[in-house]
Amino acid sequence: MISLAGRDILHAWGKFVFTGVGLGLLVGVTLSMAGIYRGMVDDAQVLLDNSGADLWVVQQGTLGPYAEPSSVYDDAYRGVLAMPGVARASNVTYLTMQVRLGDRDVRAMVVGIVPGGPGEPGQPGHLVAGRHITRGHYEAVVDVATGFRVGDRIRIRRTEYAVVGLTRRAVSSSGDPMVFVPLKDAQEAQFLKDADAIVQQRRRTAANASLNPPGAPGVVGAVVASQTKSPYVNAVLVQVEPGYEPAAVAADIQRWKRLQVYTRPQVEEILVGKLIATSARQIAMFLVILSVVSAAVVAFIIYTMTAGKIREIAVLKLIGARNRTIAAMIVQQALALGAIAFVVGKLAATAWAPVFPKYVLLLPGDAVRGFAAVMVICVLASGVAIRAALAVDPADAVGG
């Protein structure tokens, strides 16, 4: 029975292999779609890992700092640092924008951090070249995915920064590479106004009687000075002392500091369950459509192959071959076709994954599930061909 299917494949092996290669490219697209979803989830996990935080302190009533805007006074970290169980606390800002190098610009997440050594919340954990930020202004550490190198001078808004270090896999939840700059510079970039806006703001402040009362010329100057800098950050990252439960520390901060505090599982739920939920459902729909298309293609191919050897099947029936022998031959050919398609698809997905602009993560577990799905689809799709083969009359072997 096995040799019967094998002999039939060897009889037209070229057509069989090329058909498997074509189907394999379709399987490769399906595996790549699953890899894109896995990459999105991994980007979210990497974002949290790189922050080095156990707790995220944000504005009350918001899902910040990643899913919604959040503004917290930049001196709030001092009160958080004094809470029991808090080992370290550090301000951080996040802003997605274009970063320019000469005539080229790159979409990146600009992260404002307090200059310090590795281990501090928000710091890039591992550098592959250069050093960490040590100065309060005009230095940057970038992810290698930006294409920048140590020594380059990049421009964020109107300010130039010297790239002093490179890190790897520091990305936002949407896959944009990160650019780390000193916190003061990031605050200025996030809330910087152009010259015309500053002039108009000063004119409106001077025209406001409550901000420029008669006989007190110093008031308007103080108001204008307070408007030239931003006292806000997006979040305070907190590391908890060993022996303390993060949820308990978060509850104390939330109660006494009147701020929203999220633990890591809660931030993961926000990122995966809310931020990338729509993209995940869209990819799931693509996977379902591709599975249906693959099943239809396999059914058509197996049916065509079976229809092309009606006379041979009639001869088998004439010499006494049982129906289950013929059905087994068709199923084995379908499984062989599926095996070739899966191998080609896996190789193709692995080969073109690095070319994708977003991170594509191909997990061995997904490959095993994909192989099982391909085999099941091939068995189900061969049903149409089996039905056609069993309907063949043995007299067709001699009737022409």
Topology:
Blueprint: H1 2-11, H2 13-51, E1 55-58, E2 72-73, H3 76-81, E3 86-101, E4 104-113, E5 127-130, E6 139-143, E7 153-156, E8 159-167, E9 178-182, H4 183-191, H5 195-207, H6 217-227, E10 232-233, E11 235-240, H7 246-257, E12 260-263, H8 264-275, H9 277-307, H10 310-318, H11 323-352, H12 364-390, H13 396-399
Parallel strand pairs: 4-9, 6-8
Antiparallel strand pairs: 1-11, 1-12, 2-10, 3-4, 3-11, 5-8, 6-9, 7-8
Helix content: 40-55%
**Unreliable stretches, pLDDT < 50, 5 or more residues?**
none
Distance between the termini: 26 Å
User: Rg to the nearest angstrom?
Assistant: 31 Å
- Quick one: overall form? elongated
The number of helical runs is 13
Q: Based on DSSP secondary structure assignment, what is the total number of beta strands?
A: 12
Strand portion: 15-25%
Going by helix content, strand content and strand pairing, the class is alpha+beta
Largest sheet: 10 strands, mixed
Describe what you observe in this structure.
This protein is of the alpha+beta class and 400 residues long. 53% of the residues lie in helices and 18% in strands. It contains 13 helices and twelve strands. The protein has helices spanning 2-11, 13-51, 76-81, 183-191, 195-207, 217-227, 246-257, 264-275, 277-307, 310-318, 323-352, 364-390, 396-399, and strands at residues 55-58, 72-73, 86-101, 104-113, 127-130, 139-143, 153-156, 159-167, 178-182, 232-233, 235-240, 260-263. Strands 1, 3, 4, 5, 6, 7, 8, 9, 11 and 12 form a ten-stranded mixed sheet that branches. A two-stranded antiparallel ribbon has the order 2-10. Helix 11 packs antiparallel against helix 12. The longest helix is centred in the N-terminal third of the chain and has 39 residues, at 13-51. It starts with a helix and ends with a helix.
